[in-house]
Amino acid sequence: MTTSHGPSMETHPDIVDMRMRHEMAERATSTPQGQAVGTLAFLTGIYMAASPWITGFNALSTLAVTNLVVGIAYALLMSGGFGRAYERTHSMAWGACIMGIWTIIAPWVVAGSVSTTKTIVNNVVAGAIATLLALAAIAATHKAAAGQAGRGMTAPYTRR
Questions:
Q1: Residue 52: enclosing H or E segment and its boundaries?
Q2: Distance (Å, whole) CA 25 – CA 2
Q3: Which tens digits make up the pLDDT trace of 47-95?
Q4: What is the DSSP string of 93-123?
């Protein structure tokens, strides 16, 4: 008794689509620009986490803890190679962008009176850099998607 088998797993459309998306994310992070963004983002996150002790506002515990947690989360999020699929890459970078914006506004919104000149300058500069690096990661994923579509391959989130 012989049975007709469908397409092999290697040529299944879902497998091919997953492979293309993985390659796109890999291309975005393997360029010198992508590696620079990842490295700078990691260092920015580490700085954000340590900044209360570096700039001397660790006595302002609510902001110190906020910077520590957000800095570690940002460093881990952005150093993860931007994700291994376009959707994760894209959403992780947007999440990191929100963390950068939070860092900017944190001196005015966390509990206690922590909006000193030192904390404001530190958080606005670090948050702005974090936001710009996250936007650069978003741009890299869009560039990789556009390159994929330009070669006749379907870009993510498009209908066939």
A1: helix 32-55
A2: 41
A3: 999 999 999 988 888 999 999 999 999 999 888 644 454 455 667 889 9
A4: HHHHHHHHHHHHHHHHHSSSS---HHHHHHH
